[in-house]
């Protein structure tokens, strides 16, 4: 039960920060998206994002900073495994399943609901 509460709190705080950035600054949702992914990557590279994941679980991995963390941690892991060429393959291997799922489910929803545009 505590894991669910912490996921809710951490994920909620990330969302609150994003909403405040959009409400109180001239940043657009696209700016906030990029900012969160980059900050997740930077915090991951500095070793600061994994402790947040240890506390918040899915509340820290599902939002956008978690994607940045996946990119960086996948790259670091692959570089340690195969060397220099891991720079090019690590991020792709670490995020391929999530990106594929987003594309496939987005396509299914577009076919089922016949979007206008």
From TrEMBL:
Name of the protein: Stage V sporulation protein AE
Pfam families, sorted: SpoVAC_SpoVAEB
UniProt keyword annotation of Membrane present: yes
Superkingdom, natural source: Bacteria
Keywords carried by this UniProt record: Membrane, Transmembrane, Transmembrane helix
TM region positions: 5-22, 28-49, 94-113
Presence of the UniProt keyword Membrane in the record: yes
InterPro entries: Spore_V_AE, SpoVA
Species name: Sporomusa malonica
């Amino acid at each position: 039960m505590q894991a669910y509460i912490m996921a809710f709190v951490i994920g909620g705080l990330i969302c609150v920060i994003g909403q405040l950035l959009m409400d109180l600054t001239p940043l657009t949702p696209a700016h906030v998206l990029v900012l969160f992914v980059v900050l997740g990557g930077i915090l991951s590279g500095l070793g600061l994002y994994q402790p947040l994941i240890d506390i918040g679980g899915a509340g820290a991995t599902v939002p956008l900073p978690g994607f940045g963390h996946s990119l960086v941690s996948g790259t670091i892991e692959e570089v340690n495994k195969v060397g220099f060429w891991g720079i090019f393959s690590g991020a792709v291997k670490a995020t391929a399943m999530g990106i594929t799922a987003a594309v496939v489910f987005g396509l299914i929803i577009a076919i089922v609901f016949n979007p206008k545009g």
